[in-house]
Amino acid sequence: MKTKVLIVEDEFSIALDLRQRLEDMDYDVVDWAESYEEALVKIVEHSPDIVLTDIQLNKEKDGIETAKQIVKSFKLPIVFVTAFSDKSTFEKAMEASPMGYVTKPFKDEDLKHNIELALQKHLQLNNSEKLAPSISEFDDNDVKKEYIFLKSKNQYEKVYFTEIVFIEALDNYTNIYTNQKKYTINYYLRDFYAQLPSDKFVRIHRSFAVALDAIKAIEDNLLLLRNNTSIPVSKSYKRVFRKISCIRKN
Hints:
The chain is α/β, with parallel strands linked by helices. The protein folds into two domains: 4-131, Rossmann fold, CATH 3.40.50.2300; 149-249, CATH 2.40.50.1020. It has helices at 12-24, 36-46, 63-74, 87-93, 108-131, 189-193, 239-249, and strands at 4-8, 28-33, 50-53, 78-82, 100-103, 147-152, 155-160, 164-170, 173-178, 182-185, 201-205, 208-211, 215-219, 222-225, 230-232. The chain has a five-stranded parallel beta sheet, with helices on both faces. Strands 10-9-8-12-11 form a five-stranded antiparallel beta sheet. Strands 13-14-15 form a three-stranded antiparallel beta sheet, with no helix packed on it. Strand 6 (147-152) and strand 7 form a beta hairpin. Helix 2 runs parallel beside helix 3 (63-74). The longest helix has 24 residues, at 108-131. The radius of gyration is 21 Å and the shape is elongated.
């Protein structure tokens, strides 16, 4: 299986050239993002194995800030591909814990070597972490996400978790219903559900998950939601009643 690569670059001609070089090296370039927000969304959509990003992005957040968030949220290896080789930029870039740093103009062999070394170091790091004892996979002190970007037509819209009423599985697609509209994404429900805060959403059926705050009433095997939608609760998810009862009491 080919290595999946995401490019983060805000200049189309450079991104196109880099994409062609990578494909000639037999990598699978899954997509191209030109900003911090778009990069995070496309990682969720495509699950790349590695991210190649420029340092200088003409956006609110640069490539270093983008890389820091990618490492923190997705634990993916980062390779910087940049025209900046000065000491101060390099030292600042190291704060993002990249696994490669390629200076433009570069030879294809140098790029390929950096990618392969980054993948190898990432694999070794993951294996060592699996062997090490740990209390929790995630730090409770991490900043909690409050929103996610969802694609709507030709743009990505910021959707706060508090706006979501329920999520519905439809084959390999997922429908997200908010107070105002419906979003359809090419993503399995189980994978999207894993991105949601566990204290605000609960899975009640193999095809449905709901926001706890959206529940108005429980009747037999149905939940009545605030938008007057009724959602079935399967027998295997009956424990949701106990969870909801505890929350309502508190």
